[in-house]
From TrEMBL:
Gene3D superfamilies xrefs: 3.30.300.20
Coiled coil stretches, renumbered: none
InterPro entries membership: KH_dom-like_a/b, OsmC-like_firmicutes, OsmC/Ohr_fam, OsmC/Ohrsf, OsmC_Ohr_Peroxiredoxin
UniProt protein name: Peroxiredoxin
Parts of the chain that traverse the membrane: none
Length: 146
């Protein structure tokens, strides 16, 4: 078993209209409540960070999955949308939908089209963030090949 700790520090002072910070080994960003949710919208926010984590994890997992499947001349662009709902007095992220666009050579396109559904599933199953939020947040994948 491999264990790794990912460490971040968050700081906040004051009430909901204030701005805090999140700092890790690489990330250093201001955080606040998003403006559409009644905050001041400075920096990023936990919701955006969750969707960013899911999106970046998925694109890395997809790249590795395609590489193992012998698709090496690829270009990936992934757009992700997290949908949150407010019900029973609480906000909850209910879905994250990934929209990966996969560019491959003309020679690889037909082969990838045949194998894509299984490869998308493998990538999702190998993504740590997907595995961590599964059963709490629905993960959807709507890929296209360019």
């Amino acid at each position: 078993m491999v264990k790794h700790d990912f460490k971040v520090q968050t700081k906040w002072r004051g009430g909901r209209e204030e701005v805090g910070t999140v700092n890790g080994d690489i990330i250093s960003e201001q955080i606040s409540i998003p403006a559409p949710l009644g905050g001041n919208g400075v920096g990023t926010n936990p919701d955006e960070l969750l969707v960013s984590a899911a999106s970046s994890c998925y694109i890395i997992s997809l790249a590795a999955t395609l590489e193992r499947a012998k698709f090496t001349d690829i270009n990936l662009i992934n757009n992700s949308v997290g949908t949150a709902l407010f019900e029973n007095g609480k906000f909850k992220m209910v879905t994250i939908t990934h929209y990966p666009k996969i560019s491959v050579t003309a020679e690889d396109k037909e082969n990838l089209e045949k194998r894509l559904p299984k490869l998308l599933e493998i990538a999702d199953n190998n993504c740590m963030i997907s595995n961590s939020i599964r059963n709490n947040v629905e993960i959807k994948i709507q890929a296209s090949i360019q």
